[in-house]
Each structure stands twice: as C-alpha cells, then as structure tokens.
Task: structure prediction
Amino acid sequence: MNDFFSGQPVNDAQQTLDRLRTSMRITIKGKDEVIDQVLICLAAAGHPLIEDLPGVGKTTLAYSLARSMDCAFSRIQFTSDLLPSDVTGVSIYEELERCFVFKKGPVFANVVLADEINRATPKTQSALLEVMDRSKVTVDGEPHDVGAPFMVFATQNPVDYEGTFPLPESQMDRFLMRLHMGYPKVADELDILRSACNAYDSIAHNAVVSAAQVLQLQAICQQVFIEDSVLSYILQIIGATRTESEFKAGISVRGSLALKHAAQGRALLRGRDFVVPEDVESLVVPVLAHRLSLLRQSSDSMEERRAITAALRRIVGNITAPV
Result:
C-alpha cells in the first residue's frame, strides 16, 4: 500500500465527499448514482458533461454542487451568437492608462457552468479547450491562470435537437465523464412538486466544504494506490477498444489516464485508499463511451450510443479481472 496514507487522509476525503453528497441530496431527488459520479469527477479534478433532455435537472445539479462549496461560481449560457471572448475575456484599451487591460470573462471561477454547451458554434466551444486542459487562458499571447480548484460543469441537449452543434472529438475528450440524469421516479417527482423552489437559483444552500478542502481532496485522490495488475487491467480494456472493428478509432492515452483517475476517485468515495477492479468496471461506460464513435455511423445518435455501450460492456466481459 501507499506509505502516504495513515488512515486519516482517507477519512478526511470521505467526510468531505459525504458532506457534499448530503448537501446535494437536498435538492437532487433520487439521483444518488449521478451525484456520486459528479463527486468522482470533482475528486479526480475532472470535468463532467451532463447530456439529457431539457428540464430534467441538469442545471440544478451543477448549481447544487457549486453552492455546496465555498468557491466562486459562474454560469455561461451558450447560444449561437456567443463569441470566444464572451467566455475567456478580452483586452480593452484604457484611454486614461494608455494601455490594454485584460478584462476577465466568466470562465474565471472555480466552478463554471457551461449551460447547453452544444448550442454555441464550434469556434466558441473551442474557447474552452485550453482552460479545461491546463486551467489557464491565453489572450494576446499572455497566459492567465483561472485559479484552483477548477471545474467546467457542462450540460448539453441531445445532439439530434434543433439548433445544436455536435462537440468535436477533441472537445469531448476533455470531459472526464459523460453522464445522464433521466426522468425521476414518481415518488421523487412528487417530492419535487411539493417543494417550494421554483427555479435552481432560488435554492438556499450553505457551503459545507471550503476550496482548501476540495484541493486537499484532489491531492489525496492522486495518491490512491493502484496495483500493477489493475493498471494492466485498464490497459487491456483500452487496448481492446483500439482493435475493436466497430470503432472508428480506439481510446487515446488521455482516455486511459481518465479511467485511472476516475477509478481513484471512486475508491475514495467508497472509503478506500486503493483501487479494485470493480472501480474500473463501473466507470468504463461513463468515462470511455463519449470518446468513441462507430465506424459505420448511424443517423440516430441514441442508437449509436447504445451500440457503443454494448460494445464496451462486451469488451469488459471478455477480459478477466484481476483478483
């Protein structure tokens, strides 16, 4: 096991995650699995992409996480006329100072909600590529750090919807996971109807963790132990996607690292300082499916995603997990 752990760091990390989960459950009813996946993204310092029908709680989920942390939050409503400078910021000439001064855009926050990201043009979508990868923005050749912790929490409507622009492969690859909300169960929707909250910004959340605690959580996550046999298991799954005849191309190195980091986050969420094969198996679809496309693309995006999911599950089923 890793000498980094004496037991207390793991307990601290689990307590941080438990407080966030309890806070988010106040407003997000019956979606414990989705909440856990979002918290795994947070622990692994990754970016979640929530794709689902309008009105099922995607924005509320992001807002609930952001307001549960004592961190700066901003929301960007992506539209077809949004410009890259509307996201990153712009240099403006100040007459009195006789020089250009950089005015920060809304991306300068700890949690950035990119709402309906696929309603913006590819040019504007690409404004997030650098900041999602390196937590900095370069404007006029000058780099600007956005701060830490940093998370882009993006939502998008199904790509078959009118007025959407599919995210390119390079953009999709920046997201640690693609998640789905789905309709709530009847009992959970009844609780929602009984609630007095009419909109997500009317939710009254008290911050339950600080920015320093989030950074500590992410540092602990990086130290979660992964035995070589589990790393080999990850590589077998990744390698199988590269030889799968149904896929246009296999998973990149970024994808294999994403699966590793997500598995470390899930281990912490379960109160462990080591990764087990189950951590990897449970995250294969949410971490890898959005990075793949079929060689013979279907006109129905949902049908294509079901085929990709089935292929990934078949791959996992054909590989013997280490004991």
Notes: The chain is about 45% helix and 15% strand. The chain has a mean pLDDT of 89.
